[in-house]
Structure formats: C-alpha cells, structure tokens
Design a protein that fits this description.
Layout lengths: L1 E7 L2 H8 L6 E5 L5 E2 L7 E2 L5 E2 L2 E2 L4 H12 L1 E6 L5 H14 L16 H9 L6 H28 L10 H16 L5 E11 L5 E9 L2 E2 L5 H11 L4 E13 L7 H12 L3 H13 L1 E3 L3 E3 L14 H14 L32 H4 L5 H16 L5 E12 L2 E12 L32 E13 L8 H10 L8 H10 L3 E4 L2 E4 L1 H13 L6 H15 L5 H23 L7 E6 L6 E7 L2 E5 L9 E3 L2 E2 L11 E5 L5 E5 L9 E2 L14 H34 L1
Parallel strand pairs: 1-2, 1-7
Antiparallel strand pairs: 3-6, 4-5, 8-9, 8-16, 9-10, 9-15, 11-14, 11-16, 12-13, 14-15, 17-18, 19-20, 20-21, 21-22, 23-24, 24-25, 25-26
Helix pairs in contact: 3-5, 5-16, 5-17, 6-14, 6-15, 8-12, 8-13, 9-12
C-alpha cells in the first residue's frame, strides 16, 4: 500500500513532480476530465433546478478502474489538478468517482512545478473549493443551454452541424461588425504640409510639420485649402518661436498574462493562439534537462494577473545585477486590473537562473522561442526605464504654425533586453535628434521647399488573432482559459477564416451572425456576455448561488427561444436565383453557401442533387487561344486567371489579369504546380471520404 497517491491531469506533469516526492508516493494522471455532460442530449434537468446529468467519458473506463484501484491501495489521496476553476472541477469529479467525501482535506495546488512549490503544497492540503466548482458548473450549464437551444434553429434554417454559443457567437459578431464597418467605410481626403528648412549658420536642413494657424489646429481636406496656405507662405519668414528640450521615460511592460502572452507570441513569433497555449502547456508541465531531470520551466499559463511573488522578484534582481549591472534594476509592482481574478501570479520563468540560451539544446525550436519571450519579458519588467532626450521646435511663418520634434535614446534600460510590440506600426526609437540643428528663439531659418501630400483615411483594420484576443479581454468576454478554444471553434465551424494573420468572416459566418443577432439579440451581444462573466466571478467568490444565476437567465431565455421557433417555423431561407439552368432538370439554379464559399445548386433538392461551382469570368479573351478566362482563388484567397479550356486544350494560367490584345507564349509554371497540388489534395480527401463511407457500410452490413 502506498502512503500517498497524487492525481494530476497529464502524464508529463506527473513525471515532473514524481522526482520531487520521495518515500512511498505514487503520481498518476487523469488525462483531463473524466466526467462530462453527454453530447447526445441537453443533459440539464430544467424541471429540477438545472441538475446536470454527468456521465463518465466514453473510453475512460479502464483509466477510472485503475484510479479507483490506486486510491483504494493508498492511505491518502491528493488531487493536484490545475489551479483554476477547470482544474477545481476536475478535482471535484475525481472525488465523486473515487468516493472521497466532499469535506475531505484532499486538494493541493501549485502555481509552478518546482520542488519547493510542490512540497509546500503537500504540506498544506485543503478542501475542494465548491465556490470555484460552482462557477465552472454555472458556465458549463449556461453554455450548454445556450448552445443546445439555439443551435437547432441554425440546423433548420441554414444547415445541420452548425453551432451557436454565448462566447463564440459574440466573437463572430465582433468580426462581422468590423467587416461591415470596412465595407461601408467612405474614405476622407486629407493633406499634410511639410516644410524643408535649413539653419542659416550650419546649413543643416530638417523637416517641420504644419499644425495650424494662430495656435489653432487646422485639418486640411482639399487641394484648394492647401494652395491657399502655400500662397500665404510664399514670401513668409520662418521664425523660431520656441525651443523645448527635455527627457522622456519609457517604462517596461508588465510580465505576461494569458492574453498578453497570446498577443505578443502572435506578433513576434507568428504563433496561432492555440499553438501558443500548447507550447506553454509543455513548458509548464516539464522538459527533460540533464542533471535536473524533467523540469517545469514556467508558472501556470492561464492567468489574468500581473502580480509576481517576492521570491521571484528577488531572483530577477540577482539575474539583472549579474548580467547588466545594478543601475539596470528597479523593484517594480504592477497594478492588477479591477476585474482580474488574481488567483495566480503572472506568467514567468520558474527558475530565472535558467536562461533560454543555457537550455536551448533541450527545447524544441518553438519551446525555445516562447520560453525566451516569457523569460525576457519577465526580467525586463523589473528593469529601469529607458530614457530619451527630446527636443521640440515651434516655428511661426506668417501666423501659420509648424513643429519639429525629435528624440534619441540616452539610456536603454529595459530596452537592452526586451521591447513590446503593438498592432500598430512600431514606434521608432530614434527620431533624428542628431539631425536637428541647435536653434534659439527668434532665429530665422531658411525655407528650402514646401512639400504637400494627399492621403485618404483608411477603414479600421481587420482583426488578427492577437487583436481579437485583446478586444475580447477589454470587453470582458471570456476568461484566460476561453480565448484559444473560442477562436479554434469558430475557425472549425467555418464562420471565419484566417488569411496569413488576418481574420475574415465567411459568407456562412455572416448568414449565421445575421440570424442570431436578429432573433437572439438579448443573448448574442457583448454586454450580456460580459455581465455573465461578472456573475461567474461572483459565484467563485461565494457571493451568489449558481442555480439562482441560471434560473434568472433561463425563464426569459426560454420564452425567446419558443417565440423564435414559432416565428421561423414557416420561414424558409430565400436563395438568390441565378440565370444558370440546371442541366438535369431545367430549373434555374440558386446560389448557396458551402464550406468553401458560394456554389450553384438545383432548387429541386433532394429530387435533383445537381451542384457546381460559381465561375467568375472576365471580359478579356485568353491570350493563347481566345477562349474565356476565369478568375479562381488559391487556398490563401489570392486571385489567379485561367483559361476555361485548361487543362484540356490550353495551358494558360497567370497571376496577372491579361490585357486586351496581349499574346502570351508561356504560362506561370510555379502557379501551375500550386494549383495542381491543390487539386490533388482535394481528390485525395474525396477518395478518403469515399473509402471511409464504404468501410462503414461493410461494417454495418456485417453486423
């Protein structure tokens, strides 16, 4: 019989903590959740105060039996699942399966997998926190009700297999709203005026930007306005009105939270959100390092706090003073946001003495990149500010105001190690202070030339994964554990697609969003979703009952669902009719939406199942054979041009739109290969699907 049995979620985590615990201790993994709601039905008893109907997860019977056997042969069982609501819920389900009483002192947690943290946790076990499990249960029940009540509406009106969700549908709405903004955006003309001036003594030239007139800012929207100013400046003297010099400080960013890590890994490393969390999980659970064994390299990666422990602060100081010098260290504290759960520290290295370069050979390339990002961000967060010398020169010309600004770095501070990126253009560290001449008040400078530039305002940018996570966090939608699954789900449902880093709503996403927003406005909106997160937080703090929260929501929601189902019962989606005749039955084909976009389908379905892709043609003939030229798209949504007779009798294919009268001898060979590869992949996928269907049929027949 073992003295202690410790149950964690994953084998990697089990292997890491085994080495810390001597004596007769066994460490095993539950492989995540072992109980959940069945997928085949709602499984929430709405007649009996929303009692969930949990079942053991299919395929885990032998694991459950093994855990029961290990628990029976142990004097003490400790549940050491992750230190968040999800981990608390897994511990609660394990306790139920293993027959551990609810008030048993069996729960241990640690924010980092180090010898000290694990041993300390074993010394201080506690009861399972029912407030945390209730908060997780409230989220699970609410999301199940919303998903299972609304999704059937989509099945009836759009197509089967679609899903709606409290968080995922709001994320899709944000993306669709942004796309609508872009589509309806009307560019506005604006102009900039820049004076190229020079110092009469040194002959050094510099730029000065137009601001306005008589200290009032003027925005220029037409060439006429610009020409009027240029006329007034023709004989004007440019006189220095004021010179201001000073210092500016730039402070380091705080250590990572889940969302800031996801954003920065997307910007700096090009990692998808899901990949970031997968790599971070591996770093947290442990990596094999000679002489240390399996070592957890970072603290828990699902957190919304920027707090760090005194011990970590002390270790950062040691690293900074050793590698950079005392003048680079500053003991910094970061304010935690009001709505932060603050259950864990920020994401930081568990062992700051292990620099990324020291252990690079033991990490995969992706692990090294992310560990380096986390390590440098944490160390930089405890370093001194960067200091810039700044200069501002205000110049007057016939009552018009111009300004020259510059800055140059004086002391790099934390920037020696790490600089945070943004979604906007990167801020330049040096703005040419050395190129600005030393000037005094009332100095006259010579006008070399006046440059004007016409520009047009641009629509808001489409979301990237990084900027979407930032928006979700700012609006209080979801929590650290939900950002990655939310984006993964809406990508998998084909509601959105990602081209390079940019996110677009698909036609399917727009249709689903329109239906949901028009009929379930009270649920599919930012305010409701953010308010429910606050309710879950309140449950976790013990200030509210989870069943009461669901009760308050369900009554009005059920009325809305019944109303929508009744109103939409006789409503059919009206498909846009094309002028293309169905070859099989003669009906005019309609435009429908599929996984890969719009296609033509016979309205006589299911009697007539004819369907074909929509072909877009241009009004310029093929430069090789004179036939029609079609526009098609690559997997990355890039347009290319191809002859309608390709590959039968003409091989014309090109990235560039053909010009009238153009004659082409050769086609783009690289593009040919890419298109051929795409076609081969589709054929292979179709073949696999057919084989799978045939196999299933044989099995069914055999039974």
């Amino acid at each position: 019989m073992t003295d202690k049995l410790i149950i964690v979620e994953s084998p990697a985590k089990a292997n890491t903590i085994k080495k810390f615990l001597g004596g007769n201790t066994k460490v095993v993994a539950s492989m995540g959740h072992i109980r959940d709601l069945p997928k085949s039905k709602l499984a929430i008893d709405t007649e009996h105060d929303f009692e969930p109907e949990y079942i053991n997860i299919r395929g885990k019977a032998s694991l459950i039996n093994s855990l029961k056997k290990d628990a029976k042969n142990s004097k003490q069982v400790y549940l050491a699942t992750d230190p968040d609501r999800e981990g608390e819920a897994i511990a609660w389900h394990l306790a139920y399966i293993l027959g551990i009483p609810q008030d048993s002192i069996c729960r241990i947690t640690f924010n980092e997998i180090t010898k000290e943290a694990v041993k300390e946790a074993v010394k201080k076990p506690r009861k399972i926190d029912l407030n945390l499990t209730d908060a997780q249960q409230a989220r699970r029940v609410l999301d199940r009700i919303v998903g299972y009540k609304i999704s059937p509406v989509l099945w009836k009106k759009v197509k089967r297999g679609l899903s709606a969700g409290r968080v995922q549908s709001v994320a899709v709405k944000l993306i669709c709203d942004r796309e609508e903004e872009i589509e309806h955006f009307v560019p506005e003309e604006y102009w900039n005026i820049t004076a190229i001036l020079s110092d009469t003594k040194t002959k050094k030239s510099f730029e000065s930007k137009f601001l306005g007139k008589n200290k009032e800012k003027i925005e220029l929207h037409s060439k006429e306005e610009v020409d009027k100013i240029l006329q007034d400046l023709e004989k004007a003297k440019f006189i220095v009105e004021d010179v201001t010099t000073g210092e500016k400080k730039r402070n380091p960013a705080p250590p990572f939270t889940t969302s800031t890590m996801q954003q920065e890994a997307s910007r700096k490393l090009g990692f998808a959100i899901r990949k970031t969390m997968s790599v971070a999980q591996g770093l947290y659970e442990g990596v094999k390092i000679p002489e240390r064994g399996t070592t957890g390299l970072i603290t828990y990666m699902r957190t919304d706090s920027t707090r760090i422990s005194d011990e970590a602060r002390s270790m950062a100081k040691e690293v900074i003073e050793k590698n950079f010098g005392e003048q680079y260290y500053e003991n910094r504290f970061y304010k935690v946001k009001n709505d932060s759960q603050d259950a864990h520290e920020a994401i930081r290295p568990s062992y700051p003495d292990l620099s990324p370069e020291q252990i690079k050979e033991y990490l995969t390339p992706d692990q090294y990149k992310l560990y380096r990002l986390i390590y440098n961000r944490f160390i930089a967060s405890q370093m001194t500010s960067a200091i810039y010398d700044t200069i501002t020169i205000d110049i007057n010309a016939n009552e018009y105001n111009f300004r020259t600004t510059g800055q140059s770095i004086k002391f790099r501070g934390f920037m020696t190690l790490y600089v945070e990126d943004t979604d906007d253009e990167k801020e330049s560290e040096e703005l040419g202070i050395a190129n600005i001449p030393y000037l005094n008040k009332k100095d006259e400078v010579k006008k070399e030339e006046i440059q004007t530039k016409q520009s047009f305002s641009e629509p808001p940018p489409r979301y990237t994964e990084a900027s979407l996570v930032k928006t979700l966090e700012e609006k209080g939608i979801g929590r650290p554990s939900t950002y990655a699954p939310t984006i993964t789900t809406i990508l998998a449902r084909n509601y959105i697609e990602k081209v390079q880093k940019t996110i677009f709503p698909t036609e399917l996403g727009k249709i689903v969003n329109k239906l949901l927003v028009e009929n379930f406005e009270g649920v599919i909106n930012v305010e409701f979703t953010a308010e429910m997160e606050k309710q879950f937080d309140s449950i976790a703090e013990g200030n509210k009952n989870w069943r009461e929260t669901i009760r308050e929501f369900y009554g009005p929601f059920e009325v809305v669902v019944e109303k929508v189902e009744k109103e939409l019962e006789h409503v059919q989606l009206v498909y846009e009719e094309s002028d293309v005749k169905c070859e099989k039955c003669g009906r005019n084909m309609v435009i429908k939406m599929g996984k890969y976009g719009k296609f033509l389908a016979c309205p006589g379905y299911p009697e007539c199942r004819n369907a074909k892709p929509i072909v877009e043609e241009i009004d310029v003939p093929c430069p090789k054979c004179g036939a029609k030229v079609q526009i098609r798209k690559t997997k990355k949504r890039r347009n290319y041009y191809i002859c309608e007779n390709n590959p039968a009798s003409c091989d014309y294919i090109s990235w560039n739109k053909p010009k009238p009268g153009e004659v082409v001898e050769d086609s783009d060979e690289e593009l040919k290969k890419e298109v051929k590869k795409k076609t081969t992949t589709k054929k292979t996928a179709t073949k696999k699907t057919t084989t799978k269907k045939k196999t299933t049929k044989r099995k069914t027949t055999k039974k």
